[in-house]
Fold this sequence. Notes:
alpha/beta, Rossmann fold, 8 helices
Amino acid sequence: MRGESFAERVYGPDLTLALLAxxxxxxxxxxxxLGGLEGVPALLVQSLxxxxxxxxxxxxxxxPVGDVGDAPDASIVERVNASGAxxxxxxxxxxxxxxxxxxxxxxxxxxxxxxxxxxxxxxSGTKSQAPKWMQKRGLEWLxxxxxxxxxxxxxxxxxxAKFAAAVINNRLRK
Length: 174
């Protein structure tokens, strides 16, 4: 929008793999994976340990499905803080993970929280990624909508359309 031609998409699974590869074998950086449906974090950890055998994993947890709430859940704060994690990877989807990180950031000891969307599902093997040609053309949303129409239909077809209309309206006013 501001003419920055070098700006590129930061894709959650690619970011995750790049950073985990960088920290594989570094015992001073430990990772906590928070998100996904029941069982997904365990599959994710299994997959990552096979790829990065020396990765320091502090923990993994699938929080209850539902709204973020108004106050941090003390049991989740205790679990994450007790793990001693350096990085908390949050895979709750957007905007839930963004709201979650905003709410929990002040009470967590980990210096870094990273929201990575559906990367838990992709990296654990529970869901497939869009083909590269779709990703490069900005069509991953269409692939994901096809996979999960009930869950993503309103987000992609209603909210994204409202957002695009607001951006266009804002640009026309200037």
